[in-house]
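Writing this down once: the sequence line spells out the residues, with the fold written below as integer tokens. This is how one looks:
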Amino acid sequence: MLNDVTFGQYYPVDSFVHRLDPRFKLLALIAFIVLLFVANNFYALGACAVILIITVIVSRVPVGSVLRSIKGIIFILVFTGVLNIFFHSGETVYWQWGILKVTLEGIIFTVFLMFRLFFLVMASSILTLTTTPVALTDGIESLLKPLTFIKFPVHELALIMSIALRFIPTLIDETNRIISAQKARGADFESGNIFKRIKAMVPILIPLLISAFRRAEELGDAMDARCYSGSKNRTKYKKLRFGWRDLVAFLFIGALIAGVVLFNIYCYNIFPQIYAYIRIS
């Protein structure tokens, strides 16, 4: 049931993207998300799609593994799309009933918005599929290290994120086992109205919470037994370093970002008639 959740799951393969510094990948993801919201036309959005396609090819991660991350937001995509189609204002009206209306501008805006969310989730899943939880939290800790000057617990925050990412696949497997065990006892999770389905989830949530608290207690005892003392005088076995791959990726992504910005600036001058229909304000 939950096998399609890709967040926190790592796909082990030796590729150019896997070998990149996790700090660079985090910054690249932030830049890509900003770029998605800066893009205001389909040409710029197409450039963002090119970035994603090239990244997936170079990362050697199966396309199916990346696309499975979309299943978790299908409801959000559909719900957002329906709201925008019926409530987005426009001049070219195709259908209207009361306050509900379908316009050409609303359809274009809805398609643009759904592609934007689609690319955003795909980029985030590529990050987690190509970066181990330990490397990801090390990168976050390194990027937030300047906050230690104001006594912010950067190491503790990174540790919490590392543990959370590490236990996402474990809890997913535990949930699947509980669901299979409850189905073997005759539990029904698929029939009935929404209230009956929510009530049917109680036999899953209670064992899952008990298992999560038990694992947390065991992990705390293991850390105490190994004399864990937080960030004080701690060293790292693997030190993060920027390499030639990061430089190449930086130049490539920088060129693509510049291309998207140029599309936004000069698209009207190049294709004025088409731009009038596809521009998203």
